[in-house]
Every structure is written in structure tokens, then in C-alpha cells.
Amino acid sequence: MEQFILRLKIILQSNYFYYGLFILVLFYALFRIYVIKYESKLNINNDYVGVIDSYEYKNNKYKFSLKGKENLIVYYKTDDNLMVKRGMKVVVSGEYNEPSSNTIFNNFNYKKYLNNHKTFYIMNAKSIKAIDKRINIFYKIKNYIYERCNDLKSGGYIKAFILGDKSSIDEYNLYQANGVSHLFALSGMHIGLLTGILLFLLKKYSKKNFLIILFLIFYLIITIESASLLRSIVFYIMLKINKKFNLDISTKNILLLTISILIIYNPLIIMDMGFEYSAVVTYGLVVCTKYFKKNYFVNLFITSLIAFLFSLPITVYYNYKINMLSIISNLFVVPLVSFIIYPLSLITFIIPYLDSILFILLRLLILINSLLSSVAFNVVIPKVSIIFYLIYYLFL
Q1: Angle, alpha carbons 289-331-363 (nearest 5°)
Q2: What is the enclosing helix (H) or strand (E) of 91?
Q3: What is d(CA 36, CA 7) in angstroms, rounded to the nearest whole number?
Q4: Phi, psi of 95 (to 5 degrees)
Q5: Using the 8-state DSSP alphabet, how is residue 326 labeled?
Q6: What pLDDT, in 10s, does the model give residues 57-103?
Q7: Is residue 95 left, alpha or beta, with left meaning phi > 0 and alpha meaning psi from -120 to 50?
Q8: Cβ of 199: how many Cβ atoms within 10 Å?
């Protein structure tokens, strides 16, 4: 038995094992996506029964994201304010339509985007009716967070920081242009700060790591589905398992194992831009730890530079342009959001009286980004071969 454990440990500490596993899993994902393709199983002649996962109401029109046997986007036009809540089971009838593809070559393909998230149809509904108003505990908490945020001036940002819902941030395009939108996508930074707070609060409890993992799983369920958040939480859990059982697996290999597990669980995750950014940038930061110094501002610049270099091909692939000053933008915005706005958003959710202070800081954030946007240096790059990206990463 000891001999078996020893050999297992040797395998688990081998770089070849994780790179080999990652390559095999990548081929498996490509096979599932391009050979055995995911296809719709909906009967478009029948009404759809599903649970309301999220919804928006703008200009007398509802947009529902429903979960059932298959995901469905539903649009319903009405002058009435429907008594609906997330978690309700509804039946909708109407006309099913396939999402529209891009009409401009190489532009954003909405149909492909939805298909990669296992959504194959959009319905223009004629009627929607609740058939079960019972709501589970996860949706009750999510509804409570939304209702509480809706009463705050800074509620749109608090929803983004807690649930990952960025739909109420009017200035989001501004943050994207400056290359700082990652601060509003639930990811490793948020999990790092959140677990840091929890570790401080639970420092006297011997089972603190177990309680934090339970909290993170619960948190994952109530948030907007985010591949970057899923990656961050699974990575955190794997790190704790490695430490608990003294497996001595390197951080880089744990990250590769995490990515492989998630791809096996859902091969389509490799088509998710958020997952691609999260996985590649985290890998870059892990393998470049030797360059970090003791000075915070030096490390902030190094982090911004590494993130920029490793995410560059993804940005070019999706946007065909890059903001060369995004490294500088991160130097100004990251400390403000990480250490002031994000923690204050969590506190304001608990103590709403701080909303005015948070609102002023958010105006400052918008002002800084407006100034940075005015001096942005965008470089347009044409579509290049996939070989270019492979060579780039090999050199990097």
C-alpha cells in the first residue's frame, strides 16, 4: 500500500502527467464540439415549461432566461407589471426562432454565443403563466439581493460585485474600452478578497477551510453563471485539498488539473471568453511568480503587464483591436476597485447608510475612466491565422 501511495505521489508531481491530461482533454472537447455537436432537443410545436433564472424589464418588454430541459431566451411585450420572481416555474407559449447570426463577417455572432451556452432557440411569447410559485432557498436569496440592491443608488455596481450581473452598469462599455472590465466579472480577485475576509472572521475556528468551501459552493449557486467564477472556486478548493493531504503538487499543475476537470464537465466551456481570459491570465501569473517583488506598486505593474501579454491573443481574436494603454489604466483603477470600492460595496449591502459614500466613489471611478478613455491608444489588428497565436504563446 505504501509503495502504491508513493508511486501515485510521483505521478501527481509530474509535469508530464498534467500537460498530457490537458492535451487529451482539449482533443476531447474539440471532438464533442465539432464532431458530436450539441443540438437542440426541444419540440418547437409545444409550449415551454421552465424556471425563471433571470429577467429584465425595459421599454415595456420582458426578457426572460428560462431553465428547463434546455435553456431558452423569452421576450414578452406587455404594459403590465408581471408578478414574477426568479425561481418560479412557468409555462410560455409563442413562436420559436433560431438566434440570428452575424451579418458582418468576423463580427460578434449572437447565435454562436448562445449555442455555446446550450441555448438554441429564442421565443417571442404570446402568454406566460406561473404554474408553481414555490421558490427554493437559492432563488429566495438571489431575489432578496436584487430587491435590496434596487433600493440603492449604487445598486447596479453592488449587483455586479455580488452576483456578477453587469446589466445595470451603464458605463460598462467604458470599462471594456479601457481594459479594466475584468474587475466587474466575478473571478480570482473577488474570491481572493472574499476568502481573505472570511479567513479573518473565522480565524479562531479549526474547521474554517471547510466552512469557507461550503460558502463558496453556496455562493456559486446563487450567482449569475460565470465560467471565471467556477474556475476560481474549483481552483481554490483544489489548492486546499493539495495542502490538506500534503500532495506537494505545484500551483501550475493544480491549475492545469482544474482546467481539465472543468472541460471534462462541460466541453463548451473552452468557447467561453470569460473562461479563456481567466484560465490563460491565471496561468501567466502562476508561471511568472518569480518576477514579483516586495513592492506593491511594482507588483501591480508586473501583474498588469503579464495579464496584458497573456490575454492579448484572446482580445485580438474577439475584438480585432487592443488598447495599448490598458496596462496604465489598470494601475489607476485596480487599487481603487480592489481595496476601496469592492469591499465598500459588500459593506454597503449590509449597511445601506453608506450608499452615498459609495456613490461618490463610483462617480470618481467613472471620471477616471472617462479621462483614461480620452487618451486611449487603440491599435486595430486584422484577423490572423491560428498558427500566429500558437507561435505567440510559445515565444511568450
Answers
A1: 140
A2: strand 89-97
A3: 36
A4: -100, 125
A5: H
A6: 888 899 999 999 899 999 999 888 888 999 999 999 999 999 987 76
A7: beta
A8: 13
List the grid coordinates of 313. 491573443
Sign (positive or negative) of CA dihedral 50, 54, 56, 57: positive
Helix 251-265 vs helix 227-244: crossing angle, to nearest 10: 130
Polymer length in residues for the chain: 396
HSE-up of residue 323 (Cα within 13 Å, Cβ side)? 20
| Region of 393 on the Ramachandran plot (φ > 0 left; ψ -120 to 50 alpha; else beta) | alpha
At 9, list the grid cell. 505521489
Cα 342 from Cα 348, distance rounded (Å): 10
Q: Strand, coil or helix: what is 319? A: helix
Helical H segments across the chain, by residue range: 2-12, 15-34, 110-115, 137-150, 155-163, 172-178, 188-201, 208-222, 227-244, 251-265, 273-287, 296-319, 326-336, 342-350, 355-374, 386-395
Helix axes 355-374, 342-350, angle to 10 degrees: 150
pLDDT in tens, 353-394: 999 999 999 999 999 999 999 988 889 888 888 888 989 999
Report the predicted TM-score, pTM, of the whole model to 2 decimal places.
Answer: 0.93
The closest of 358, 336, 359, 288 to 189, measured between CA atoms, is 336
